Amino acid sequence: MTTVENNRTETIEDVLTRIAELAPLIRKNAAASESDRRVSEETIAALKEAGAFRVVAPRRFGGLEASLRSLLDVSSAVAEADGGAAWVVTLSNTNVWTTSLHPGRGLDEAFADGPDTIVSGVLAPSGKARKVPGGYRVDGRWPYASASLHADWTTNGALLVDDNDQVLDQVAVAIPRADFRVEDTWYVAGMRASGSNTIVVEDVFVPEHRVASLGPYLAGEHISAHPDAPLYRGALTSFLNTAVTGPQLGLGRAALNLVRTKAAEKALAYTTVTRQADSVAFQMLVAEAAMKIETAHLHAYRAADDVQAHADAGVFPELIARARIRGDVAITLRSINEALNILLDAHGAASFAEVNAMQRIWRDSNVAARHAVTLPHVSMETYGKALLGIPEHITPLI
Q1: 57, 117 contact by CB (below 8 A)
Q2: What is the mean pLDDT of the chain?
Q3: pLDDT at res. 189
Q4: Does 1 score more than 70 pLDDT?
Q5: Is the pTM of this model over 0.85?
Q6: Which of 52, 92, 79 is nearest to 249 (CA)?
Q7: Quick one: 32 exposed, middle or buried, by C-beta within 10 A (0-12, 13-18, 19+)?
């Protein structure tokens, strides 16, 4: 095991200070990152230097091993400058967190070069693993693998099958960059810079210590493996669901700040109002949008605090608590999207000019809000069933 002394970044406050200093650079590169469909290497290098990729990495490897709420703070701060960069930071950190749930030799390998390892990954079992002496042979294609273009490792879901292709289990496999390739498939309306391409693995040997059955983690059985590390005792799906709200919070703040700043110099088209800020109708739109953004923050932070409280206590949350966290995430996503639509009404048609960051914020937020794991209508149905005591659920990801 390699232990890394970290003299640059000791606290989350250090990371947030560095991100604030980097915001002009990240913002400057945002349009080019979107056009290139990958976050610029300059931005990635700066975010690594700032410690943005080590937020939930284990402390013994030089990581900060911080809280879920801290991850929301970091990812939302990056999103105020660029949503695509924030998505890469967020998804890498969540995959670092899931990797860290399985202590042992595989973890030592993942962090052999330090705490700034970028990890891509897809939970869906889009591959197959077959047992062989010493490990498994793995094949698969995993689309929508965010951070794929910068990833050092990937951690993906797969079906463990026998020689007759009969499913035995669902597992997670960790694979280094040398053993997978990235197929260029991410052509989308928003979050273009996230690099959410397709990871392809072709008959790769994965040693046994890099494969773990997923069921025990979904059931919270990993909690006892981390007596001294509360961060890694969090409920798996609750942590993942809540983590992806971070970029949305920053996108909402960025849009509100843009509209407020322009209001002092922009006229209300085809009216006698020479400054939008002087219009009562405009003031009411801005206030309504601001309150929806505040609502999103309240729900996201409540969810993060609930996940952390149960983790600190070493207790796996009851189903209704986990379902409510999904409800919190749904309200967060909907509130931000609704706020952005209101701000577009307030700001006007200029919002959709390619040179205006508003249109990119709007597209990034709307695409990210449709992530399959956090679909608001699925989350609300899940919470409704839990409230009514209905045992049948449409998803195991609660």
Answers
A1: yes
A2: 94
A3: 96
A4: no
A5: yes
A6: 79
A7: middle
Burial of 185 per CB tally in 10 Å (0-12, 13-18, 19+): middle
| Contact present, 129 and 160 (Cβ < 8 Å) | yes
- pLDDT at res. 7: 46
- Indicate the pairing of strand 135-145 with strand 153-161: unpaired
**Distance (Å, rounded) from C-alpha 232 to C-alpha 168?**
27
Q: Which two tokens stand for residue 218?
A: 């979904």
Please report, as a single letter, which amino acid is at residue 353. Answer: A
Residue 5 pLDDT exceeds 70? no
Give the rounded distance of the alpha carbon of 181 from its chain centre. 22
Rounded-to-integer distance, Cα 361 and Cα 368, Å: 11
Closest CA to 210 of 240, 177, 168, 171: 171
Residue in 121, 195, 109 with CA at minimum distance from that of residue 158: 121
DSSP letter (8 states) at residue 349? G
Beta bridge partners of 158: 171
Residue partners of 174: CB distance under 8 A and separation at least 6: 99, 106, 110, 153, 154, 155, 206, 210, 211
47 half-sphere exposure, CB direction, 13 A CA radius: 33
- Would you list the DSSP string of 361-393? HHHHHHHHTT-GGG-HHHHHHHHHHHHHT----
Phi-psi label, residue 270: left if phi above 0, alpha if psi -120 to 50, beta otherwise: left
How many CB atoms lie under 10 A from the CB of residue 116?
A: 25
What CA–CA distances, in Å, run from 132 to 135, 136, 161, 162, 203? 5, 5, 11, 10, 12
Beta strand spans in the chain (E) = 119-132, 135-145, 153-161, 167-176, 181-183, 197-207, 211-213
Helix axes 236-243, 319-347, angle to 10 degrees: 10
**pLDDT of the residue at 9:** 62
For residue 4, the model assigns a pLDDT of 35
Distance CA 361, CA 357 (A): 6
Torsion angle in degrees (nearest 10) through CA of 262, 13, 244, 33 = 60
H or E element at residue 236: helix 236-243
Confidence of residue 286 (pLDDT cuts 50, 70, 90): very high
The total of other beta-carbon atoms located within 10 Å of residue 64's CB is 24
Beta-bridge partners for 96: none
